[in-house]
Amino acid sequence: MTGTVALALIPVALMIALGYGLRRSGFIAEAFWPQAERLCYFVLLPALFLNGLATADIDALPVRELALVLVGATVTVALVVVLARPLFRTDGAAFTSIFQGSIRFNNYIGVSLAAGIFGAPGIALAAVCNAAIVPTVNLLCILVFARFGTARVAALGVLRLIVTNPLVVACLGGILLQWLGVRPPAGIEPALRALGAASMPLGLLCVGAALDFGAARSWIGPVAASSVAKFLVMPMVTLLAVRLTGLGAPAATIALMFQALPTASSSYILARQLGGDAPLMAGITATQTVLAAFAIPAALALTALIP
Hints:
Low-confidence stretches: none
Number of strands: 0
Helix content: over 70%
């Protein structure tokens, strides 16, 4: 299992490194990167979530119990992080990065690991995880950005951000199509799949391009805080939820794995779009990707504690 985890993380780290090299070498014009971020946020990532949720085979899966575990654990950790904000001694924009690093997850790594460990059933379980926590995480992050980000908005503005957020809309659309039993038309589904496949590499390149190691010294505290929340608190709270609900393997294994995933490349894109600390977010993403090589196997070892 450790080998499977490493194989899933290596390409992610390489894509981030490539983005860093392309930006620093000047091989690609500076004006490209903001437009690439916008393309990921408004087109590619929504296509990934919409098509993935609409086409997943979730029959005979413990959907309700798995969703309850994931949403309950995520909301609990989010509340703990918000209550602990005075301890971080950062400005509001930096706190939004700590918050995202504490609760967001990398879909690409999650799906790859689920498929590698459990095959087709793992992919279906991964789709349920996405359906449960992608909308939850995005709603929570938008609320935190509205409160602590530099782009402050009023209550109606917060509601508008939620109902018009492309990631939330795409997830709800995919869930609706799944519930109705409707798949994207034959001529459209391959296009959605191709767009979704492009979202991860381009997003990771953008993360690498945003890295600024000159500011690395100021990252230590925020990176440590978000990583403790993500790799220690989140798996332990999830394990408690698993035991309370009686969720069994393999769903419990997938739940623990997803809650120990490093934060997603979309975190950086969201920080750039909604007034967060984007360079710090890129640093958290890159650091957590490395730490995940150790954190994910440790989280999966917790399955031994499941009755």
